[in-house]
Give the backbone structure.
Amino acid sequence: MTQVLVIGAGPAGLAAATAASALGADVTVLDSSYDLGGQYWRHLPSTRPTASEGILLHGFERFRELRERLENDSQVRILTLSQVWAIDRNPDTRNAGDSSVGDRWRVHVLQGVPDGHDRLALTIIPDAIVFATGAHDRTLPFTGWQLPGVFSAGAAQALAKGERVAVGSRVVVSGAGPFLLPVAASLVQAGAKVLGVYEASTISRLASGWLPRPWQLLGAPGKAAELVGYVGNHLRNRIPYRTGRAVIAAEGDGRVERVVVARLDANWAPIVGTTRTIEADAVCIGHGFTPRLELPIAVGCALSAERFVAVDHRQATSSPGVYAAGEITGIGGVDAALAEGSIAGHSAAGGSDDEAAMSRQRRLRAASTRFAARIEAAHGIRPGWSQWLTPDTLICRCEEVSYGRLCDTSAHTGSAGLRSLKLSTRAGLGICQGRVCGRTVEDLLGRLAAGGLIDTTSTDRRPIVSPIRLGELAGGTVLPPAPPPPGNTEERE
Amino acid sequence: MVSQALLPENDPIRPGGSTPIGITVDGKPATGLTGQTIAAIMMAEGRLSWRRSSVAGEPRGLFCGIGICFDCLVVVNGERDVRACQRRAVSGDAIEFQHDELPGVAG
Ligand SMILES: Cc1cc2nc3c(=O)[nH]c(=O)nc-3n(C[C@H](O)[C@H](O)[C@H](O)COP(=O)(O)OP(=O)(O)OC[C@H]3O[C@@H](n4cnc5c(N)ncnc54)[C@H](O)[C@@H]3O)c2cc1C
Ligand code: FES
């Protein structure tokens, strides 16, 4: 029987596990979090029951069905609090030399509370892997973004949905993309006053992205209804939604007390003389999402030109036996993640191409992919944003490297090597491993180097996926492939 | 008040029962709910920062909220470098702040 390992239990991973089990595979689905659901279905812990949590979470019923089905499926092993920290080639691969099957990979897992010192080291050696590791917010820097009170949009969302904590009482939301709307809605539902949502893209670009083919938006049914819901929420709570504007600075003594908002041109460059200061205690920023690519890169998956995991119509990556689904293959939202997950799980379990169930999923995926293309057209980052930087603006938050230092180092060394520039500035080399600033550092250094950067060292490469404590490296139990017999629920939550 | 918890009586999702837990934050008692992260308990009390950055010594707290940025590190029962946004509090946890150099990575 095929052993399928699904990494990540958001919408894509849950759909993949369900589809793989339906074809009779032995499935292990794991996630570093305490609970299943990923970012989209982040919810309160079971120790905090509610009468109607569903009003915070679109499609919560769908989530509960998926979770219940998996929890009651004896072919499925669910491992929560399980962080994959590295993947390498299995030294005694039984497929050695057979390129059609590919390598077998050893997946190294630490199980236990986040950053705990006594986590259990496990090794899993599956026949097929489905990566469904999702994405995190892309946040463009601005002066003062290191002040307490500046949050990623996802942080505001996570605290509102998973904790019922509002990140501030007077909050400004700034960035680009439809995700700003559910963030504003969640903040209001958590008791904050949202002073305004500032969308960087200008109305004409939004119009060209959204308006020419409104039927495409309707083709992604869940999304359309959801967007109407968010807009309704805006109207009811009278939250100003302003386009062609951005927070370009945050100010305050030890925390955010004010933000500076400017009008932007179509290229996202701030227009001189248009700034306005708003008293606020929190600002939430999001300029789209960065896929979590380190594990796919570790097993040699090719990336697309847009720097997502490249997949074919079966969600197969370029690495044999390895599949990918959800935000790591493109930013399409929950509908795309679910459809891609179903196809990936089906393929990973050895399912054939032409089964009827898959053609429905493929139609759903196509609609969502068009939706994603339109989001990118309307809200994708434009280069003019760098004009709101000043020499003092921090670019790398961990190593506290300013824009001025990046410019000076680039000018003095005349280097066009990303790696050497990172080593001399320390930008992107802090403990977050460049997750927050990596793409920004690449972008800015690329513009500063006369003919662009020469090396292709991508900031997405991270052989050790998460910090591990010394001592955790030693040992490690190889997890037996078969799921535990029914009734053994120790490993479940 | 800046960051704050929504009072159950004002919450449209109508929370049912939950169990309070007591921890200490920088030596002072704090109360949260079972299942809450350490960061959420601190932020529910209006605290926005708890770490000082390694170079400039500037205040930092939660930024990404999902375990990516490592800005929120705290010491939990003597154990350093724990992401406060990821770790759920356990009754009796002693949370302290850390201000020294962070580990970096090569590459
Ligand atoms: C903070 C945040 C909030 C969001 N909220 C919304 C929203 O409200 N509405 C909306 O439309 N979109 C939202 N999004 C966009 C969201 O990414 C997608 O809508 C959807 O969740 C994507 O599903 P997915 O299954 O691809 O990934 P995710 O839902 O992100 O699931 C990926 C899972 O993989 C796990 N994982 C990653 N790496 C590892 C590892 N090494 N080891 C173990 N587990 C791992 C993660 O813990 C996570 O649970 C949000 C994104 C973020 C970052
Ligand atoms: S706030 Fe980013 S890791 Fe905790």
User: Anything to note?
Assistant: Chain A has a mean pLDDT of 87. Chain A has three domains: 3-136+290-351, 139-287, 389-448.
